[in-house]
Structures are given as C-alpha cells and as structure tokens.
C-alpha cells in the first residue's frame, strides 16, 4: 500500500473499513470517518519518508538503543 | 517537637531544603506531610492535578523517616520530601489507571514501580497519583474520564501533557518533585507550559519496571522540579539496572554532580534553527534565542531531516500504541476517549511497510544527531511552538498557518526523543505565560544538560518557580 493511495479521505475510509474488518475491530457508524482522517495524516507522514533514498543496508532488526 | 509548618510555606520549599531540615531534626517528616496534604486539599481543586491522594501511606512513610532520624540512622538523601507520580506508575494497593477508564477495572498493583521503590529508599514520601492524557496519547491532559488538568498560571489554559498532572502539581506548589514519563514530549511540553524543570533521560537510562507503557521503543521515565538541584538529586537516585526492564545498564556514566561548575565555561553551545525556528511562534523562538545568546551560543544550526524525524516518530507511535491496545479496541471501543480511540485504530491498521521505513530512518537520523555532538556539547531549542493554549482549543496559528492543537504541541519535541537523546527542559525568564527551552545533549551525557541548566539558573536566565508561588 503506497502512502499516496491513502492521502484521500475516500481511499483511507475504504482501507480502514477493510483492514478493521480483517483485524476484528468494529467501527460502528461514526468511527470510519474519524479513523480515516487519522489514517490520512499517517499517510502524509509516510509519504514524507518515501521521498528519501531507500537504504537497504540500514539495519532495522535489532532493538534501537542510542 | 519541630517548628509548626504552614501549608502555604511548604509550597515554596525546595525538596533539598525539606530534606535538610528533616535530616537535622529541625522539622518532622510527619509535619511536612500534614502540611503538604493540607495544601493539596486546599489547592488541588483549582488545577485538578491529583487523581488519588495516598494520605495513609504518606503518613506511614513519614513516620518511618522520623523514626530513623530519632534513632540516629541515615533517613536518606530525600528524607521527608513529598512527591507524587503520574498515574501510569504502579503504586502497591492502587489500580494503575494510565488515565483510562478501562484500566480502572483492573487489579490493584501488587508492588511499586522500580523508581518509586528507589524514591522510598531515599526517604521520599509518596502523596498520590496524578492526572494524564488517556494512555499518554496526547499533549493537553484534557482527560474525558478524570477531567482536564488546568495550568496553575492560568486555569483557563492547558497544563500540557501527557504528564500534565505532574507538571501542574509542581508548578502549583503541591509537591516539590513529581515523576512522569516522556515518549514524544510528554514531560517537556507540560514542563514548558507550566514553567517547571524536567529531565527526560537518554532512552534506556532509567528502569521502567512497573510502568504502564505507551510506545515501548520510545518511552522513558523522568521527573519534574522547581529548580536544578532538586532535579539532579532525584535523577541521581534513579540510576541502576532494573530487573523488570531489560534496557538500563549499570554504566559508570557521569552524574550531575560530576564536574558541575557555576559557569557555562568550556561547554560548546548551539541553537537549533531551521525547522525549530519555522515551527515556533515569535515569542517562543525569541525566548529560546535570547537564552542561547546569553549563554554564549556559538552558532545556529539547521539540522537536516527534522521534519522526517517527526513524521517517523508519529508513525511508530501510532503503530506501537495501536498494537498495544488492539484487544480493547476490539472488545471495549466505547470505553476509550473517542479522540484517542480513533488515533489508536488508525495506528493498529498502519501498513507494516510504513513502520519499517520509519525504523530504517531512525538509524539514519540517529547518526546525523550523534555527529552533531562532535562539534557541540549542548543544543538549545524551544520546547513548544506556543505558550499554553486555552482548554478546549482545537487549533492554533503558527506563522500564519492553522494547525491542529493536540498533535502539534509536540512539533519541537518529537524529533529529539525519536532517537532517544537526553533533554533537560528549563523554564525561561519571560513575562506572562511560561515558555521553555530544551537543552539537548549526546546520548548518555545528561551531565552536560545539568551543567548548562545550573549555569543558566545562577545567571538568572530561568524563571523562578518560588517567585510565582509567592505571587499567587
């Protein structure tokens, strides 16, 4: 799922409803809209990271400690 | 019999002053506790900092301190010092709320959090637990279950969050020390908005055993105070391994009292510009710049990729927080604060590729920040974009742009904690509502933050808490 795909509220709503169903989260009447708005914000942040060059050598498996 | 202690007078005493008087027998710890409990009774309603007052335990701990003094035993470096903790710390016999309604149905804690045990061993006296944003996911402590914590400087305004109760309790003179936690700015934001000091140590420095987590890869334990010496004393006591937390190591690292001087001296200081200048209003930026200039800052640095660091911190926070609460999002969605529930749901559904990308970037940004400290010792940055907003406020204006308030109060703190750096927040000497500055150092070099903070305090560049209390 590309971050670009989820930066529209409509697409984010569809994604949230489908994914919540798979995870067993009941969204009820109002939650799809609110959860989708939060997903749009996350997608915007993810897009910002995708603009950076990808570094496949960067280790990410172990626990981060400064 | 010790001198009588008035509840207003105790509100303007530092922790080390109290400890000194109790240790010498000039004051009884029990009298200190009674005066503190009277002050909490009289003043807490104005700020709503406490969610539980542990009066019985406090009197029991104070009596033990008095007995030690009477018997000629060392009662500990914080003998008789009243303190309180954010309500995500385990306190034996209390339910660990973490600001939530859901946790209120849980079992009472069987034992104290590791840091509370350390405070008790030092002779400090626990007076209660403090309000916070639900599950620490917020920057305003407007808790829909336990009410909003109000800013002691203006009760129509937020105290900041998520450790808002901790900052407000210290700023209102209810206790001289309070414990909190910081994930994305949850100590630095309320410290700045309430005009207190706080230390957010290096990630992994202090044991988190017996604390309710928010984002385990970011969470740290820290403390609030009204002056640097109190902060340093409490911080020094928190060191050491924790059998309930794998990260703290028994490292022989510099503590605040090692090599502390009265002057900035040889410390190389820089001001964080660029992103930090663009995301602070004129008052917040000018206060931080003036502070740095007066301490001899040698440069204004434009750190690369700070916006990406904040973005990555936001994603990790949502994903880890969402996963942590997944079971209750399924089974008890209506028992969450609605705003927090909707953020957690989105977090739980975050695509794994985004999370992994954020983690990958964390290594890169860590290298950038660590390299920065080859040339400087302490980086100064404003702590919040603006001074304390009104309670209930949804947005704020920043350089002509309207931003959502709740997620944006951490604009200047999130990028720093993302890579686990230590930060000491100081209250700046500005008129009107408080503003704070972050003093940021390389990993494990909290001693440099303390050294600069103490210099600033002695040069009159910080806001005296006691002066505020005297005027209230």
What does this 3D model show about the protein?
The complex is a heterodimer of chains A (66) and B (472). By secondary structure, chain A is mostly helical. Chain A contains two helices and no strands. In chain A, helix 1 crosses helix 2. In chain B, the strands form four sheets. In chain B, strands 1-3-2-8-10-9-16-17-13-11-12 form an eleven-stranded mixed β-sheet, with helices on both faces. Chain B has a two-stranded antiparallel sheet with strand order 4-5. In chain B, helix 3 packs antiparallel against helix 4 (55-70), helix 11 packs across helix 13 (338-348) and helix 11 (306-324) packs across helix 14. Chain B is globular and about 60 Å long. The interface between A and B is large, with 36 and 49 residues.
Radius of gyration of chain B: 21 Å
- What is the helical fraction of chain B, as a range of percent? 25-40%
The total count of helices of chain A amounts to 2
Mean pLDDT rating of chain A: 86
**Can you count the beta strands of chain B?**
17
Ends apart, CA distance between termini of chain A: 30 Å
CATH hierarchy: architecture of chain B: Alpha-Beta Complex
Q: Count the beta strands of chain A.
A: 0
Q: Characterize the biggest β-sheet of chain B.
A: 11 strands, mixed
Radius of gyration of chain A: 15 Å
Features:
heterodimer; A: 66 residues; mainly alpha; 53% helix; extended; B: 472 residues; alpha+beta; Amidase signature (AS) enzymes; two-stranded antiparallel ribbon; 18 helices; 15% strand; globular; disordered C terminus
